[in-house]
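HUMAN:
Sorry, I am quite new to this. Are you able to go through these amino acid letters and fold codes? The numbers rather puzzle me.
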Amino acid sequence: MMRSSVFLILFFALMLILPSGCKDTGNGNQPKDLTEAEIEENLLQANKHAVGTEDEQIRNFIQRYGWKMNETGTGLRYMVYKRGDGPLAKTGQIASLRYEIRLITGDVAYTSNEKGIKEFLIGKGGVESGLEEGILFLHQGDKAKLILPSHLAYGLIGDQDKIPAKSTIIYDVELVKLK
């Protein structure tokens, strides 16, 4: 569902950018419609550029703070800065977290101090996919930083409140309890 939404949004964005809508003047005689494959390739290139730009912003942020982070294949970055002594989180458990969510700009969006402890069933969804992924690297009692690129956070539309569209977010979490 998310992939088709991204495709549609990028399609319409390219429609605005390309001269004459979706026309290519070809040899100069008659306008030629772009094929679906050409449109898809243009969208793919635009998406690669956007992902590359966000990735560069994240790398610069990490370098600025001097954090030593691990990176997963999805683009999630994580760093455990205080080890707990509890068990490792597993799918099917309920995780209870203290947290602070910041935008990459440094602005605080949400905290457990104002919203309360966050509880969720690991593997069920209902939270950002990057948080779902990141929690599985933590033991009960761990404190960690998680950097979620926009595609692992709130994507193209944001959360319609404090997190804008296409925002990278930084979680500072403490895995308080697993049950």
Q: What stands out?
A: Confidence is low (pLDDT under 50) at residues 1-8, 20-25. Residues 2-64 form one domain. The chain is about 30% helix and 25% strand. Helices lie at 2-17, 36-65, 112-115, 129-135.
